[in-house]
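User: I'm new to structure prediction. If I give you an amino acid sequence, what do you actually give back? Let's try with this one:
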Amino acid sequence: MASPQRLENGDKTQIVPEESTMDDKTSKFLLLGVVIACLISVIALILGIVGVASNGTNTYYVGSSGGGGSPATGSLSGGGYGGDDKIWMLQIGHFGSNTQYLDESTGTIRGYDVDVANAVCQIANKNCRIVWDLYERCWDSQVGQRPRGGLGLMGGWYDGCIGWYNTLDRARTYTFSKPLEKGYPIAFYQRRGGNFNWPDFSGLKIGFIDGWWIDEHCLDRYSPRGFNKDDDTQVIHYSDEDAVAMALESGEIQIAFVPVLSTILKYTDVVKVYTPEEDKCANGGPSVMMPRNQDALLSWWNAAFDQLITTSQYTEICNNIRQEHGGQPGEDPANLCIGY
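Assistant: Good question. You get back a string of structure tokens that encode the predicted 3D arrangement of the chain. For your 340 residues, that looks like this:
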């Protein structure tokens, strides 16, 4: 506090207090606060201008690497859907076919499923990102346990997982879009010269592809003899179709229950031994699998996909599968594309 001043005025002495003043430190804090407030105002103004400028068109991106992808402008009127600010995260885990695979030269995920997702997001005028992650982050299947929702999709890491079949087990946890492609037939394979006799699995080791829709729980619905779905010495999971085919050739397993894929055909010592008359594993072909509360994604995706398959753009996607993704094994348009 400042010391008072004394004024001599005749026989009177007046005490006049000094005016209160702020010290230098307080002044600096006030000045800093004013500067910060001004900066915040300027930033808010810039963001407002950008927001207004970009409100007329909503660019979408489908990128499978950190750099994003090439932008394009969505063009769809009506249908109750259009541009918004949300970025829709769509998971893919490559398994080396022309529907989903890792392009080593670019480090990105490519394939029919990516082409379709790209087109659907464009038609619906949505901002989308494709992210790669492990299959089990979408759906976790362990020998001897009930399969369950994966950590990523259940935890909200992404909005949907592309290329998943609708099965009885999965439908208890997730909801599914309309199929993006035709379903694959299922079959049992053995090594050439084997003596499998349907439906007797006594003493046999059976191979499955981990996380796929054809699993031990599906096999159990056929009421096979000599089979225990919870026996981890009889039920063997493999990472992909190549691994299960090589296990057949080596004699590690005697039977494989897998989809009929062209990948299997390159193993000349592996032969198809039985095809069930009824598919008890899946309801339709591969779809977008999503949490049950994703009503918005389900609505705009199905509407945009229905429109896509009526366009020349979809015809071009299908007709160019071999040209664009011919270095990968997989099906022809007639066995893959909807409506072909």
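You can read the tokens as a compact description of the fold. Here is one thing that stands out. The two ends are 90 Å apart (CA to CA).
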